[in-house]
Amino acid sequence: MTAKATTSATFEQDVLQADGPVLVDFWAEWCGPCRMVAPVLDEIQNENAGKITILKLNVDENPDLAMKYQITSIPAMKVFQGGEVKTTIIGAKPKFALEQDLAPFLG
């Protein structure tokens, strides 16, 4: 996993104040589908460096943010831009489907 982690302590700076779109992957260690989608997100991050930032947020370690953003199932990914949620992606998807969901942010 190459995606950087964010936490309750760094979320505002890492995500809400970021320049450009930030995808936050809400995940947990015990979640099999989360582990399946992680390398796909790493590939997307590597292929789109400078276009989108991908961060991981462990919901078990940061329940306040999971509650704030109404995470009821994982994996859940939210794209933030300008401090606001612009899109939500629920569930593990193949790379091409994630790229389609992220196309507006990848230019």
From TrEMBL:
GO terms for biological process: cell redox homeostasis. GO terms for molecular function: protein-disulfide reductase activity. Disulfide bonds join 31-34. Pfam families: Thioredoxin. This is Thioredoxin. It comes from the Bacteria. SUPFAM superfamilies: Thioredoxin-like. Belongs to the thioredoxin family. Transmembrane segments: none annotated. InterPro entries: Thioredoxin, Thioredoxin-like_sf, Thioredoxin_CS, Thioredoxin_domain. Residues 1-107 form the Thioredoxin domain. The record marks 32-33 as: Contributes to redox potential value. Keywords: Disulfide bond, Electron transport, Redox-active center, Transport. The active site is at 31 (nucleophile), 34 (nucleophile). The record marks 25 as: Deprotonates C-terminal active site Cys.
